[in-house]
Structures are given as C-alpha cells and as structure tokens.
Amino acid sequence: MTGPTREQQRALDAYARVRKVEDPALRADYKPRVNGLGAAVLRDGLAAALAFLEREVGSNTAAERLLEDLTWCLERARLPGLSARDLKEKKNLPGAVRALELDAYMLATRESLRLLVWFRRAVQATFPSEEHGHA
Are 127 and 32 in contact (CB under 8 A)? Predict the structure, then answer.
C-alpha cells in the first residue's frame, strides 16, 4: 500500500492547520486572509504576497498564524530552498522565498497556490458560516 498523494498530503496538512484555529476572533480575521492570499500571489507574486503578511507579524495574530501555517506546510513539501535549515538561515519563509533561484521560486509559487486552495476549502468546511438571513 502506498502513502497519500501530494494532493492528499496538501489537503491533510491544510485541514490540520486550520482546525487548530479555534478562537472565534482569530477565525474572523484568518478567513479573509486565507481567501485573499491566493489572489495576491497571482496578482503580485509569492514574495510580495508573503511580504504583505510579514509586515503585519507582531501586530496581527491572523497574519502571523497564516504565515506560520504556510511555513509549516511548505517545509513538509520538501521544496528546494525551503528546507528547515534554509528557513532557519533566512529567518523566515518570506526571506527564504526572496532568496530562491527562479526555478525554485516558480515551484514554490505553484506549491503555495495548490496549498492555498486547500486552505480555502478547509476554512469553508471548518469555520461556521455567518448566517445573515440568506434565503
């Protein structure tokens, strides 16, 4: 018997991280960040999208948490230039991404976009929906 496919592993990792976001106030801020990050990566590039999250570290718990979650998932994906050692040397995910060569950057971008699809699905499935009298 074989292990999970890469897509299944992405789903498992995303759901595992999203389930750990339990505070309702944190969820309220985490959800729009997850929903908007994929578009930001497509529009601005991975490095710029991560820099946006990075600048809010320390002042915004949801941004910090999402950055930690992405770091954890991308480290597990075993991409070139994003190993635990690389992340430690560059101090964080945005620093490591900025240091990537073009091929590794493109691979990290594709992996991030695939992960963010699963993060979005996990948020939609895990967080309670806001009921505002929708018919």
Answer: no
Rounded to the nearest angstrom, the gap between the alpha carbon of residue 120 and the centroid of all alpha carbons in its chain is 10
The number of angstroms, rounded, from the C-alpha of 57 to the middle of its chain's C-alpha atoms is 14
Q: DSSP H helical segments within 77-131, as ranges?
A: 84-89, 93-98, 102-126
DSSP code for 83: S
| pLDDT digits 0-9 by tens, 96-110 | 999 999 999 999 999
Distance, in Å, from the CA atom of 19 to the CA atom of 39, rounded to the nearest integer, reads 23
From the list 29, 38, 16, the residue with the least C-alpha distance to 126 is: 16
CA distance 89 to 73: 18
Which tokens go with 81?
Answer: 């230039």
- The pLDDT tens digits for 50-99 are 999 999 988 889 999 999 999 999 999 889 989 888 888 888 899 999 99
Q: Which of 24, 9, 95, 88 is nearest to 57 (CA)?
A: 95
